[in-house]
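Side project, low priority. Logging it here so it doesn't get lost.
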Amino acid sequence: MTVGRHVIVKSYRDLYRQALRAVQYSSPARYTLKSHLRLAYRSNGADAFSSPKIENTLLFLKHAAEERGLEHRMLKNLLHVWWWQSQSSKQKKESTSANARARNVLGSSTFEHFNVTLKILNESMGTCLPERELDAQAFDELDQWKHSRFFDGL
C-alpha cells in the first residue's frame, strides 16, 4: 500500500514542528535536526514511514518538549552526536594527507555503536528517528535534493 504525497509531507511537517518545540528552536540543534530529518525522508521510500511509528515519534518528541526528563536528555544527546558526525564528515571531505586519511578510517568506526544503538532504540520504541549517519556522500545527496520539486516548500 503506497502512502500519498500529502500524507508524507504532513508527517514530515508534524515531526519537524514537534522536534523544533523539543529543542526549543536552538540554532545548532534545529539545523542538525532538519538535515537528518530531510535526509531520512528523501533517502527512504514512502513505505518506510508507517502511521504508528510516526505517532510514537511525535509522542516521544512531545514528551521531550514538555519537560526535561529522559526523552529530552535522549534527544539532546542524539543531536550532539549527529552534530559531531557532521563535523567529522566535513573534515573527512577536506582532508588529503595520508595521516588524515588514516584518521578518517579510524573515525569512521567511531559512530558504528551509536548507529546500532539507535536502530535498536527505534525497534524497541516503535519510533522512526533517523538512523543514517551524515557522511560526505549524504551531504552530496542533500545538495542534489535542494532543488527537488517534491520537497519544495518544506
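Brief comment: The chain has a mean pLDDT of 79.
Revisit when time allows.
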